[in-house]
Amino acid sequence: MRNHTLNLFKVNNLSDLNFSYKLVEFNLPYLEGQEDRFNKQLQKISQQVALLSGGPAALIKRENRYWIAIPADKIFEETSINVVPYNIRVSLLPDVYQVNASSIDKNNVDVIYKFLDFEIRKQLSRNLRIWKLNSSQFFLKQPIVSRTDSIIDIYEGFSYKLVLLHGSTFYICIDLSTKYVDRHVLSYYVNTGNVQTIGNSFKGKRFLYLNGDNWYATELEGFGEDIQSHEFNNNGDSISVYNYILNNARTRKEDIKRVLKPSDLTILYKYPGRTMEPHSGACSLAKMLYSTQDKEVQSLHRYSIKDPNIRFEAIGKYIREYFQNIRYGNIALKISLNPLVEKVPNFSMPELKYNNDRTLKAGHYSNGANTTLREFAGERKHLLIENGVINKSMFDEQFLIVPDSMDRKLVEAFKKNAEHQIKALAPAFTSFTVIRYPVRANQAATFQIQEIEHILRRQNALNGFALFVLPDMTSESPRSARSFHDCLKNQFYPDLKVQCASAYKINSFFRSFPNAEAQNMFEYRVPEDKKPKFKSYLTNLVLEHLIVNRKWPYALSKNLHYDIYIGIDVHDRYAGFTFFFKNGENIFFFPEQVPLKNRSQRSEKLKANLLNKVIYEKLKMFIPKFCPTPNGIVIIRDGRSFGEENKALSSVISSLATDGLVDLSQIKYSVIDLHKQSAVPLRIASHTNGFNKLENPIAGAFKKINETEAFLYNTGFPFQIRGSAKPLHLTQIVGNTEFPKVIEDIFCQSILAFSAPDRSNSLPITIKLIDTLLEPLSGAIEGVEEEEEFEDSLGNY
DNA sequence: GCATGCTTGATGAGATAGGG
DNA sequence: CCCTATCTCATCAAGCATGC
Questions:
Q1: Which residue, A7, A212, A421, A504, is most buried by CB atoms nearer than 10 A?
Q2: Which pLDDT value is given to residue A630?
Q3: What's the maximum distance between 2 C-alpha atoms anywhere in chain A?
Q4: Structural domains in chain A (count)
Q5: For position A649, which CATH number holds?
Q6: Protein CA at A273 to nucleotide C1' at B10, angstroms
Q7: Which of A288, A310, A332 is the last residue before a domain boundary?
Q8: Protein A324 CA to nucleic acid C16 C1', in Å?
Q9: Residues 55-114 of A with CB under 7 A from strand B
């Protein structure tokens, strides 16, 4: 194992700090089955106490009862808190609990975490050299020296999170972050003379407002008069914007006087994304914020992608400059200047099983390997091209649906290429039936799709699989092209399974040549110089089409530790389920329509009875066929599970036991939450002997932060990525499986990169497939409604 | 066509302030 | 004193550039 550097900086003098606390008592009745409500009520009480006492409040459970801990030096009056339907009395108990570093245990560690985190955040917010975007992101007030002639200043900063390792040691975890801000203040562009003509173009944009020492993000609502004339109501008194700003400038008064002119225009702003009574401010204190889709930022985006050396160097700098003067009570926190360095374990690359009994094994030839780790990604693709897909089942009916604007000979040429490529990978494939559809410019997507449906119905093509060539929509807005695409997939789903391609793209590869055999005839061919690009385009398109056809390209040589994995994800109206058995030769996908989210619950929450129904039905059918008496069932939930998955899984297992399909005394189970993006911005870099001291960790490296939580790096070596690898965050929410075995199983699943075998893939195939086969449907509903509204408004004229 | 890293924007939910 | 608009906090999907 190699040494690795982690972006974790230890709090060294925890033992010097005094975390003594008092308890707050309350009695909240728990109604059976009302767990959701109970948790919300608990949270509300704890926040209320934090407010009353003016400091941190930590919710803790002792002797099967809940309490709230607040620092021993805080006090508040006994009071009632309204948590519908109760009024809960909260009172501060007199006893003081002494806590020191040696007495940290799992009963009081959350108290220490909350207290410490509260202080660190508070003191970062008070640091005059940085500004706070939200509770975890901080940026320097000095932009980094620009490397371009751009009108944009780049503000670098960091996101912060306090991390508890293995329940006893605290670390500061920070990562880099960037914001793009206009170099000039708004008054450089807009003044009382031109506000009528160009003012509107700035409305709705986001601005960084430099209000004295306090900088924050705002959204521009509109403009007022000049700041000397413009008055607003301040606690009952009318005051001009100019006077208000100078009265409140405090230490920054001289600086502000220099930029603030009485003739500056007043801006009316609100906080981004909110509806509120606008505040008044000065144009000369606002600088426009840019987002990643702004043209001006596009060329700067690459500067924020940083390799591990540069990233870790900057992280160390922020620790030195902003984390060495933080106090807890009367004592300075001693935060290590050096990052945590330790041996990080990794799983080895699993062996893959291909068609024709071929395998791919990375490592030393002496161990039976047939490739080096370095060559793994390339070979993974190469073996697939050579041997074809492992799934040899028959194909359903196949359609090639093309716009009638596409030349017949071009369609013929493309069809020949596509069929040849598919047959090379899956010999069971025969041919496409070509269907042409008319394209009507300037017509709503819904209307066009209806017309296409009539045509497909006449040709009996509403079932099966289609490669659908989208018309050339380069002249139209990207939104309407996207809307067409989404409508299409939504309209025919799930009977007709559609993979899309673009006529524009296909056209760009082909050229017409004189026919060699017949004079005055033409044919379409790909010229030599475009062949490599076309080959790569076609391979990827065909691989996707095979995935849509459920023809999995390869599998694992060995079974996973646990026999059954179930992936679950939700996109708007559909929940997707994948069932993965043993080594992945048998994977099944099912969409299930779910009720649209309502106001009171989280959008992605699934109900236990739906989960129970789907999972039980399918497992009852599959277990006898693919894995009799399984040793374990694991649910992987993309995003957050809400206890429903757990309820469903235990009821499914007991039903299956009644049916005699599983052995209750043997079977293991668990629910895993998988986050592509974690609140903990943990990074890892491997030490090398080369010129660059740090590089991305090997794929399969993992860092457990406690018994049920880990970070898994799936995108490192041998895969090539720009920047620094971002891990998956895995949490075993419930269950009795061995967590490290589950992590390894998830790593193996991520090596089944079906859609791009030569690239890295961070998601396990159980989740990735749901995204691929479900994703285009989400958003389609909204798109349709927008189009219809648009049509209606046209009709009124 | 695919993949990645990265930032912004949207969203939900609890809590609060202030008007009627 | 209740209701509603506003605010804060936290999380996740969308959308970007870029490379194969």
A1: A7
A2: 95
A3: 102
A4: 4
A5: 3.30.420.10
A6: 9
A7: A310
A8: 36
A9: 83
- Closest nucleotide to the alpha carbon of A377, via C1': C20
Note the pLDDT of residue A206: 74
> Would residue A507 count as lying in a domain?
yes
Residues in chain A: 797
Put residue A473 in one of left, alpha, beta given phi > 0 → left and psi -120 to 50 → alpha. Answer: alpha
Same domain assignment for residues A187 and A87: no
Residue ending a domain, choose from A277, A310, A343: A310
Q: Protein A517 CA to nucleic acid B2 C1', in Å? A: 38
- Both A670 and A565 in a single domain? yes
Q: Mean pLDDT score of chain A, rounded to an integer?
A: 78
Asked whether residue A337, judged by its CB, lies under 7 Å from any atom of the DNA or RNA strand B, the reply is no
Q: What is the pTM of this model?
A: 0.86
Pair A733, A317: CB distance under 8 Å: no
Window from A56-60, A670-674, A767-771 with minimum mean pLDDT: A56-60
Residues with CB under 7 A from strand C: A 134-136, 270-271, 274-277, 292-293, 298-299, 301-302, 536, 569, 604, 638-640, 675-679, 720, 722, 756, 758-759, 775, 778-779
Tokens describing residue A27: 């009695």
Q: Which own/partner pairs from A228-235 qualify as long-range (CB within 8 Å, at least 24 positions apart)? A: A228/A262, A228/A263, A230/A266, A230/A280, A232/A280
Q: Within 10 Å of residue A283's Cβ, how many Cβ atoms?
A: 28
C-alpha A575/C-alpha A598 separation (Å) is 16
Same domain? For A563 and A628 the reply is yes
Query: How much of chain A exceeds pLDDT 70, in percent?
Result: 80
User: What tokens were used for A321?
Assistant: 């400059």
- For residues A651 and A751, state if they share a domain: yes
pLDDT in tens, A557-591: 999 999 999 988 776 567 788 899 999 999 998 88
Helix and strand numbers, DSSP H then E, in chain A: 18, 40
The Cα A5–Cα A290 span in angstroms is 33
Residue A771 has pLDDT above 50, yes or no: yes
Q: Which domain covers residue A437, as residue numbers?
A: 392-548
List the beta bridge partners of residue A561. Answer: none
Residue A199, pLDDT > 50, answer yes
pLDDT at position A601, please? Answer: 36
Tell me the CATH number at A419: 3.40.50.2300
Average pLDDT of span A482-494 = 68
Instruction: Clarify whether residues A544 and A563 are in a common domain.
Output: no
Confidence of residue A351 (pLDDT cuts 50, 70, 90): very high
Among A277-281, A508-512, A680-684, the range scoring the smallest mean pLDDT is A277-281
Percent of chain A surpassing pLDDT 90: 11
Phi, psi of A604 (to 5 degrees): -95, 5
A686 vs A135: which has the higher pLDDT: A686
Residues A186 and A259 in one domain: yes
A602 in Cβ contact with A594 (< 8 Å): no
Please report whether residue A77 resides in a domain: yes
Inform me whether the pLDDT recorded for A776 exceeds 70. no
Backbone angles phi, psi at A294, to 5 degrees: -70, 135
